[in-house]
Amino acid sequence: MDLLTLPKIELHCHLDGSVRPETIIDIAIQEGISIPTNDIELIKDMLIAPLECKCLDEYLERFVIPISVMQSKESLRRIAYELLEDAAKENVKYIEVRFAPLLHIEKELSVEEVIESVLNGIKEAEEKFDIKGNLILSCMRNMPVNTAFDIVEKGKKFLGKGVVAIDLASSENEGFCERFIEPIKLARKYGYRVTIHAGETGIGKNVLEAVELLGAERIGHGIYIKDCAEAYKIVKDKGIALEMCPKSNVQTKAVDIFSNHPIYDYHRDGIKVTINTDNRTVSDTTLSNECDIVSKEFSITYEDYKQIYYNSVEASFTDEETKKKLRNYIE
């Protein structure tokens, strides 16, 4: 398989984890932002997480520098545009970008201005490249519950205009879902689709609760359903798509080595898996690279790839017209 030329779909990609190192230096100079160095190689060392992180929290430390330069309308627009440009170069036809608006208001931008700026970058890239993008708003589990209500309310005006879903992200503690039942319920009422980071760090029951308590239609990662029979069953029976990110999962120690990643076992058992980058810069990866990892480790066939592609089409939070176009790319 020529993975670079195959059409691709990405459902789990963080904006702040996918910023070009060169862009960080450029924005820092233009906007007078203090960063540790302007040396590109040193910046890369600070941004890219090693394959041997001790845990998820060590991986998350790599986001501090990118977020520091994502505090203006222009920087947010530019970074969103460049992400879609990079994705389009490897034949990604559709991408859902996620980010947490509350991490980008340090210089007094409103939440609405933050969201609009990212959408502007996405729309600009759509006009120039053969790619379609939508936006997922992430609420932070390490912030008070009222901040999730704030994002749900302020993002509502952008539904149907590029915003498609709500997400819960950041460090994963056992039982987090119960705290967020009400804001996610409100989001569903307004028309947001729901994807939840869960089961990334050894707590399979969180996946079960994300589906039962929050109405999750997709799960970010979901590695540890293998250790919770009820979570495994509900994901399989309800056709909940798992947004799996092989390299990131090894870096955060959700999985120890690539060959032990459960993605292919899940796929063979009829669970709807999808392949994603998570963070293109922090994980120093592309979607072609992620597909290559899976292809080499598990000897997947073209038919396997097509099924995973179709899983991504059906699980995407987009309209039927776009889904039909995406199916046609591979048919």
From TrEMBL:
<feature type="binding site">
    <location>
        <position position="197"/>
    </location>
    <ligand>
        <name>Zn(2+)</name>
    </ligand>
</feature>
<dbReference type="GO" id="GO:0016787">
    <property type="term" value="F:hydrolase activity"/>
</dbReference>
<feature type="domain" description="Adenosine deaminase">
    <location>
        <begin position="7"/>
        <end position="330"/>
    </location>
</feature>
<feature type="active site" description="Proton donor">
    <location>
        <position position="200"/>
    </location>
</feature>
<feature type="binding site">
    <location>
        <position position="16"/>
    </location>
    <ligand>
        <name>substrate</name>
    </ligand>
</feature>
<feature type="binding site">
    <location>
        <position position="14"/>
    </location>
    <ligand>
        <name>Zn(2+)</name>
    </ligand>
</feature>
<comment type="similarity">
    <text>Belongs to the metallo-dependent hydrolases superfamily. Adenosine and AMP deaminases family. Adenosine deaminase subfamily.</text>
</comment>
<feature type="site" description="Important for catalytic activity">
    <location>
        <position position="221"/>
    </location>
</feature>
<protein>
    <recommendedName>
        <fullName>Adenosine deaminase</fullName>
        <ecNumber>3.5.4.4</ecNumber>
    </recommendedName>
</protein>
<feature type="binding site">
    <location>
        <position position="12"/>
    </location>
    <ligand>
        <name>Zn(2+)</name>
    </ligand>
</feature>
<keyword id="KW-0862">Zinc</keyword>
<keyword id="KW-0546">Nucleotide metabolism</keyword>
<feature type="binding site">
    <location>
        <position position="278"/>
    </location>
    <ligand>
        <name>Zn(2+)</name>
    </ligand>
</feature>
<dbReference type="InterPro" id="IPR006330">
    <property type="entry name" value="Ado/ade_deaminase"/>
</dbReference>
<dbReference type="InterPro" id="IPR028893">
    <property type="entry name" value="A_deaminase"/>
</dbReference>
<dbReference type="InterPro" id="IPR032466">
    <property type="entry name" value="Metal_Hydrolase"/>
</dbReference>
<comment type="function">
    <text>Catalyzes the hydrolytic deamination of adenosine and 2-deoxyadenosine.</text>
</comment>
<dbReference type="Pfam" id="PF00962">
    <property type="entry name" value="A_deaminase"/>
</dbReference>
<dbReference type="InterPro" id="IPR001365">
    <property type="entry name" value="A_deaminase_dom"/>
</dbReference>
<keyword id="KW-0479">Metal-binding</keyword>
<feature type="binding site">
    <location>
        <position position="14"/>
    </location>
    <ligand>
        <name>substrate</name>
    </ligand>
</feature>
<keyword id="KW-0378">Hydrolase</keyword>
